[in-house]
Amino acid sequence: MRRPLIISDCDEVLLHMVVPFRDWLDEAHGIEFVMEDNSFANALRRDGVALEPAEIWRLLRAFFDTEMPRQLPIAGAPAALAELGRHADIVILTNLTDGHRDARARQLADHGIHARVFTNRGPKGPALKAILDEYAPPRALFIDDLAQHHRSVGEIAPDVTRLHFCGEPLIAGRIDCAHRAGDAAARIDTWNEALPWLLARLTTETFPQ
Prior knowledge:
By secondary structure, the protein is α/β, with parallel strands linked by helices. It folds into two domains: 5-16 and 72-203, HAD superfamily/HAD-like (Rossmann fold), CATH 3.40.50.1000; 18-70, no CATH class. It has helices spanning 18-29, 53-66, 77-84, 101-110, 125-135, 147-156, 169-172, 178-181, 191-203; strands at 5-8, 32-33, 44-46, 49-50, 89-94, 116-119, 140-144, 161-164, 186-187. The chain has a six-stranded parallel β-sheet with strand order 6-5-1-7-8-9. A three-stranded antiparallel β-sheet has the order 2-3-4, covered by helices on one side. A hairpin with a 2-residue loop joins strand 3 and strand 4. Helix 3 (77-84) runs parallel beside helix 9 and helix 5 packs across helix 6 (147-156). The chain is globular and about 55 Å long. The two termini are 23 Å apart.
C-alpha cells in the first residue's frame, strides 16, 4: 500500500545554516552578515559594502563544499523525522547542486535523518511535481522555510498541504510568511509544535488542511 509522503527542505528546517555560514564568513573571509530586512542578498557586507550576487553564490558554494560539518540539527528535528517516518515516506528537496546531493545525504544520516535527497535550483514546484509523479502518494505534505517555494508548490500542486517552518530565530521574524500570504496552511517554527500538527494530517481519516 502506498504511504503518505513528506517532502521537506533541509536548511533552517532540519539543520541550521545561516548561523554557521555567518560564523564562517567572519572567520575565513572577514565578511559581516547583517540581516536587517528579509533580503539575504543584502546581508553580506565587506567594509560596509554589500557583496555582488556572483560573489555571494561563490561563497555559498564554497561553504557547502567544505563547511557542512558546521551545520547542527534544528532542535527536535531528528526525533520528529523518526516519528513521522513511522507514518509516511520522507524525502528531502534541497536547493543545492547535484554535486552536493550525496554529501547532504551523508550529513543528514550523521544526525540520524535517513532520507532520499533530491537537489534543485530555483522554485521548487516543478521538482516537487516530479517527485509526486514518481511516488504517487495518497497525500503529501511540503515543509520549507521560504515563502516563494510554498507559492511555487501551490501553483503546480495545490493539493499538497504546505507548512511554512523556519527553525532559525535569527531570520524567522524577518522572512516573508507564506501562511500570511495564503500560500501555506500554517506557519510553525518549532518541532515541538510542528510534529503534532503534521501527525494529525497523516493519521486522521479526514485529512485536515
